[in-house]
Amino acid sequence: MNKKQDKSDIMQNIEDIEDMENGEIFEKLKKAGQIHTKVMDETIKLIKPGAKLYDIAEYVENRTRELGGEVAFPCNLSINDIAAHYTPFYGDEKVFSEDDIVKLDVGVHVDGYIADGAKTIDLSNSYKDLVRASEDALNTVINEIVPPMNVGDMGAIIQEVIESYGYKPISNLSGHVMERYLLHSGVSIPNVKETSKNIIDIGDIVAIEPFATDGFGSVIDGKEKYIFKYLKSRPVRLPTARKILKIIEKKYQYLPFAERWLACEDSKYKAGLRSLMSAGCIYGYSTLIEKNHGIVSQAEHTVFITENGVEVITK
């Protein structure tokens, strides 16, 4: 056998390994997607006036585990002008009202491979076109994906569709390419036209999430922070903070976690979290509020880009 054939065999072996790895990844993603779909379908039926946000979030997370998945991030239940990052806190008594526009954003992972998807539930029955704008933008851009595809071109499609309904895309929110145990790999999918060198390509796991609003078209940070992520270990003086940090490093080192998940660990968990944020051990996600308090809708799917086309994981 000559050197040329040796090299050919080596390349074939590499391709076989890559195919096997992609197949395993797809199977795990598919399982995460199946769990996600079931949880979403069940939860949407529970979101009604008078229901507690806390009960809904707990249902989502417990049901995810019952079905064989793990929670990729706390259940987001963002209402009206809150676009994202609201999850109920421990003891939260808030209930849904008949006027609410609810963004249900759920993340499920299997062995670190994440299915991330969201839907908007219009309890008021007054914002059908706003809900449809984000959904249509999502479905349209997915149908237009031809890898490799520039993410700025994807943003242009989303913007065009949302504006065709008479609404504005939220310019400073975006989708994201994901990797194992990593929600944001560094490549974002904008909701408006942008000049970018970034692309999505075969093998990428991509969460696409158009946001539409009748407001200004951007979000600002709110004062509340109920979702956190681990950054790094640093010395902290407060005993409660040291205790909480050990728990976070053991259970939540890779993916975001909720404040309420720590409530049973230590009665002073809030002080511990504040201390850890001040020390730079954890990061707190602010609730994101539409700048002019416009109503916001969201639609999101996770897709897996393959040689044979785009697989929608969260359908």
Number of strands: 17
Specify the helix fraction band: 25-40%
Shape: globular
SSE ordering: HHEEEEHEHEEEEEEEHEHEEEE
By secondary-structure content and strand pairing, the structural class works out as alpha+beta
Using only C-alpha atoms, the radius of gyration works out to 21 Å
The amount of beta strand, in percent, is 25-35%
Number of helical segments with 4 or more residues: 6
Gap between N and C termini: 49 Å
- The average pLDDT value, as a whole number, equals 94
Largest sheet: 5 strands, antiparallel
Low-confidence stretches: 1-5, 10-17
Give the strand order of the largest sheet, numbering strands 1, 2, ... along the chain: 8-7-10-16-17
Walk me through what this model shows:
35% of the residues lie in helices and 29% in strands. The protein is of the alpha+beta class. It has a five-stranded antiparallel β-sheet, with helices on both faces. The chain has a four-stranded antiparallel β-sheet with strand order 2-14-12-13. A three-stranded antiparallel β-sheet has the order 1-3-4. The longest helix has 42 residues, at 3-44. The protein is globular. The N and C termini lie far apart (49 Å). Mean pLDDT is 94; it is low at 1-5 and 10-17.
